[in-house]
Here is the input.
Amino acid sequence: MYSYRKITDDLVYVGVDDRRLPLFENLFPLERGVSYNSYLLLDEKTALLDTCDHTVAHQFLENVEHALGGRALDYLVIHHMEPDHCGSFEDIYRRYPDLCIISNMKTFQMLEQFFSFAIPEKNRIVVKDGEEFSFGKHSFKFLFAPMVHWPEVMFSYDITDSILFSADAFGVFGCNNGNIFASEQNYKDKDFVDDARRYYANIVGKYGPQTQAALKKTGACSIKMICPLHGPIWDEDLSFILEKYDLWSKYQPEDKAVVIYYNSVYGNTESIINHFALELGTRGVRNIRIYDVSKTEVSYLIGEAFRASHLVFGATTYNNGLFPKMENLLTDMKNLSVQNRTVSIIENGTWAPQSAKLLKEILDGMKGITYLASPLTVKSSTVNREALEELADRIAKDVLS
Ligand code: FEO
Here is the structure.
């Protein structure tokens, strides 16, 4: 059964929710699924704005066919070549072989890499950054956004209706469930924002400077609505998501808050961390979050690193190195360019503690890391209580200042 929904008089949502995919990019858990958004412009000419993942192609084709209402499909605008959006390109192209594809040169190069057939010159319109194109009543301006988060990514701005089509930017994990507009979802709720941040941090997080450049470019446009390729269409209070993106892409914390990451083999490090958290709580630190890195999947831990100002690592020494899950977290943080955080380390080692030194080696390769104190060493379950309390004092004063 087809499913589509009007956005404006001549713009239709033809995307598909995917509740079956367990791991986005075969990596990130999806608790609420994901939507592959696609939009159909019904102007004097018709234009499909991106396609969908190949796994939902059947539903997607049905949506497009019904939304077209018997009209031909004249254009396909490709904003992003990643297969969650271009996976059904061939299905669309085979069904509408006369359509013209509008995109930039990099996209056409990637099309040839992903698909084995040649696209004739007459079916290609190669656009440049800032170039405009009219579909009739609607004029679009193409704004390149390289490395947000692939090199060919471009946005387009519908000058006529002040709508920004933003590729992956401003996307969120989670299905739309019929509520395709942000105004129909509780987008300020913690769960939603956590999923928005987790999406940004893990998918785009590495490319903060490029995201800042794209924000500056789109800042010159008067925008009434943002249509991303995942999650809801932003149709109200746009500053909410724009400000979040500005903070995240500058690697500035959202919350002055403490997140504690620990690993514990037999529970001794965990016991010290629980004690330490109570010391922080006693000193007035609120909303502390503690994560056992063995239990919580790393994309959630990364999301939290993009949120909080103060990060504490409680790390055991393991095989004379870091515990693998802890090492994975730190490596991922470094790869995703986490910056500007205040960090404290509590290491544990029964005979030759190494984890503080190894953690610092990774953290020292990241920008803007501030240490409030020297690492604290636990030997098995033995710790200097005064030093632990002094560390709690320092963190509490800094967070509460
Ligand atoms: Fe939603 Fe970069 O693909």
User: Anything to note?
Assistant: The chain has two domains: 5-249, 255-400. DSSP finds twelve helices and 23 strands in the chain.
